């Protein structure tokens, strides 16, 4: 395909070694543009480092650009693991709130929760040392925030430093170290910058979701004379909950950077482009996104029956589970992206048995922390732990669906999913389907209702709008709307974008 004027503009600036921010809306040929640029600037004597987000993105890039001489394709965690993380391979992983409580020997969950948050705050920061500023000073209490006592803050700080030291100790197998921790160590080691400077250019894909310490490393690379090109879509920034931030925004005001846009989508037609612009306008963005004339993408009403394979995209893991159980009971062939078990804790079976009052064969350590189901709910209320929140939600949902053994049902669904070569439905959360596309997409009903969405403020509202934008822009031919999208279009006076008659099946 002949390059567009937008793509040529990006290439010409890159050839002149202009540092670049390339803002690419959904489906606008980001990978094609990146390949086009790299082919024109990369050689054995002018090597390029191409960094992308997930392992699947690396594999996709290798299949499309692996033959270019002088090009190294990887992601930041792979680089960090090879340089630093491999020494921790025997103790990698996340510690849940119960692990912190047992480690610290605490009688309640307050201090363990604060220590866990302090460690997370520090790891996600650009700071080289853990200090008091990383320790939370407010706690949630009955839907409001109240100050944490100073002596508790000081105790938390002391314990957080001890835990961090134990994480760094390769001989301490009892205390796990998260993947983002060795990434932090990699970004702060002096040798890393010198390794980056071996490359004439560093290209960062999916730059809207980056850790702050990687951005700081990029700044040092540019200051040392490196050539940086960052590619991404601000509106696909959906990993804030994992400590990621919009890595494009950090260089907006840097006078050494040119800003380019890719606005012509090759994935979907004008109806999806118009819907996307309506959604993004809710956060004050006037998006210059254009649909392709080559594809007549339809937005279908709720309940519309699409023919052929479809992706059912959900906001939550509980939503994926609910749909999977329904399809499983109706013997509809399906594939769950990433597997259903990956969404839930390995202790789900223990929690399910605890909810039923069957404590036989549950470990003493588990029962010491969670003696009753009411204790689980109380601990979640105290700590707002996201993992416990998911457990409570899915177990209550399973009860409402009269699922006798949830853990076993999930295992059976995963077996069926893994062996399904021709699925009718592909099930996923928005997060796991990011970067993918499908002819037919059905939006699940587990997104916020419009009235609830409008009660959100600040980053929480932005996050939800971004999720909906990512979800609708996965569709190429048919997008079956949910109530949230329908209400957005109705309020914008654009219900006419929805075409087709309603069917009782989807």
TrEMBL record:
Catalytic activity: Couples ATP hydrolysis with the unwinding of duplex DNA by translocating in the 3'-5' direction; ATP + H2O = ADP + phosphate + H(+)
Species this protein is from: Vibrio jasicida
Alphabetized UniProt keyword annotations: ATP-binding, Helicase, Hydrolase, Isomerase, Nucleotide-binding
Keyword Hydrolase: yes
Keyword field contains Chloroplast: no
Enzyme class: isomerase
Domain UvrD-like helicase C-terminal: 423-480
Gene3D superfamilies: P-loop containing nucleotide triphosphate hydrolases
Coiled coil (UniProt feature): none
UniProt-recorded Gene Ontology molecular function terms: 3'-5' DNA helicase activity; ATP binding; DNA binding; hydrolase activity
InterPro entries: DNA_helicase_UvrD-like_C, DNA_helicase_UvrD/REP, P-loop_NTPase, UvrD-like_ATP-bd
Every UvrD-like helicase ATP-binding domain range: 15-245
GO biological process assignments: double-strand break repair via homologous recombination; replication fork processing
EC nos: 5.6.2.4
Protein name per its UniProtKB record: DNA 3'-5' helicase
A Pfam family per the record: UvrD_C
């Amino acid at each position: 395909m002949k390059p567009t004027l937008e793509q040529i503009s990006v290439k010409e600036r890159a050839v002149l070694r202009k540092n670049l921010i390339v803002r690419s809306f959904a489906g606008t040929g980001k990978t094609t543009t990146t390949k086009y640029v790299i082919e024109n600037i990369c050689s054995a004597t002018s090597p390029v480092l191409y960094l992308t987000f997930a392992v699947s993105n690396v594999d996709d890039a290798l299949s499309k650009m692996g033959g270019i001489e002088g090009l190294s394709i990887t992601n930041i965690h792979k680089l960090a693991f090879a340089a630093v993380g491999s020494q921790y391979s025997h103790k990698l992983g996340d510690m849940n709130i119960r692990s912190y409580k047992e480690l610290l020997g605490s009688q309640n969950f307050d201090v363990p929760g604060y220590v866990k948050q302090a460690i997370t705050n520090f790891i996600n920061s650009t700071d080289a040392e853990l200090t008091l500023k990383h320790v939370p000073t407010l706690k949630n209490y009955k839907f409001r925030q109240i100050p944490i006592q100073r002596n508790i803050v000081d105790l938390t700080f002391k314990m957080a430093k001890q835990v961090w030291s134990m994480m760094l100790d390769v001989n301490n197998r009892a205390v796990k170290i998260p993947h983002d921790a060795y990434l932090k160590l990699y970004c702060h080691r002096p040798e890393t910058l010198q390794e980056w400077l071996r490359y004439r250019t560093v290209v960062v894909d999916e730059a809207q979701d980056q850790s702050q310490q990687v951005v700081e490393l990029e700044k040092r690379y540019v200051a040392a004379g490196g050539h940086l090109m960052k590619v991404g879509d601000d509106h696909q920034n959906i990993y804030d909950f994992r400590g990621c931030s919009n890595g494009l925004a950090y260089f907006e005001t840097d006078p050494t950077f040119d800003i380019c846009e890719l606005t012509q989508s090759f994935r979907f037609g004008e109806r999806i482009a118009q819907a996307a612009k309506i959604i993004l306008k809710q956060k004050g963005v006037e998006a210059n996104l254009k649909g392709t004339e080559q594809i007549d993408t339809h937005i279908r009403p709720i309940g519309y029956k699409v023919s052929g394979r479809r992706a059912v995209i959900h906001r939550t893991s509980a939503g994926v589970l609910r749909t999977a159980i329904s399809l499983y009971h109706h013997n509809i062939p399906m594939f769950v992206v990433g597997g259903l078990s990956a969404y839930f804790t390995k202790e789900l079976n223990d929690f399910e048995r605890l909810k039923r009052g069957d404590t036989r064969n549950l470990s003493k350590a588990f029962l010491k922390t969670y003696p009753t189901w009411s204790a689980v709910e109380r601990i979640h209320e105290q700590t707002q732990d996201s993992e416990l929140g998911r457990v409570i939600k899915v177990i209550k949902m399973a009860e409402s669906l009269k699922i006798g053994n949830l853990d076993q049902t999930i295992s059976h669904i995963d077996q069926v999913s893994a062996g399904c070569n021709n699925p009718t439905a592909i099930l996923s959360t928005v997060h796991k389907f990011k970067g993918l596309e499908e002819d037919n997409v059905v939006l699940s009903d587990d997104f916020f209702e419009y009235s609830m969405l409008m009660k959100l403020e600040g980053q929480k509202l932005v996050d939800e709008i971004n999720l909906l934008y990512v979800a609708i822009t996965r569709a190429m031919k048919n997008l079956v709307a949910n109530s949230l999208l329908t209400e957005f279009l109705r309020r914008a006076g654009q219900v006419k974008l929805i075409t087709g008659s309603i069917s009782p099946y989807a």
